[in-house]
Specification:
single chain, 172 residues, mainly alpha, 6 helices
């Protein structure tokens, strides 16, 4: 029974983590720059992804499944969070990787998700207005896009740290 518990947790952790990290890298590296370069048409694509396509929700679920299964796996492998294991080579690698992943999840949930929803709402407002957007609306949209870019990059770097930590733990 223990074998199946660990197997299921590992599969959940790996599959959700691959989706979460891959989607984050694709968005930060390719989609956001393309959306910015093709505005306002690109903005409509993001609105579809975020609001009707439920991309933000799907990414949040993947982050939660990854973090939750990772914490449960960490508890098992550490023998109940034993300090002597945590400060061992594999423990340090998994601790750093796990913390980086958890921080990335918090950034996604508390900053990136709400920012993407605000961008989508503002984009809808700009479309409905008919005429050119007001300078204050454009300034807010630019600030939100900059915030999204900055925090998206931070989350991507943290996910790279998480991946490296998890990958190297067996070799420490």
């Amino acid at each position: 029974m223990f074998f199946y518990y660990i197997l299921i947790l590992r599969l959940l952790h790996i599959i959700a983590g691959v989706f979460w990290a891959g989607a984050t890298f694709a968005i930060v590296g390719f989609v956001q720059p393309a959306v910015k370069a093709t505005a306002p048409a690109g903005g409509r694509v993001m609105q579809q992804m975020v609001k009707q396509g439920r991309f933000s929700t799907t990414l949040a679920v993947a982050a939660l499944v990854t973090a939750g299964s990772g914490i449960l796996l960490y508890e098992r492998v550490s023998g109940g969070f034993r300090p002597e294991w945590i400060f061992s080579g594999p423990g340090v690698a998994l601790t750093i990787g796990g913390l980086a992943g958890i921080i990335a999840a918090v950034i996604g949930g508390r900053i990136i998700g709400p920012t993407s929803m605000r961008i989508a709402d503002l984009g809808e407002k700009m479309q409905v207005g008919g005429g050119p957007p007001e300078p204050a609306t454009l300034a807010e949209m630019e600030a939100l896009q900059q915030r999204m870019t900055t925090w998206g990059r931070a989350a991507a770097v943290l996910l790279i740290v998480a991946i490296i930590g998890m990958s190297l733990a067996d070799y420490m």
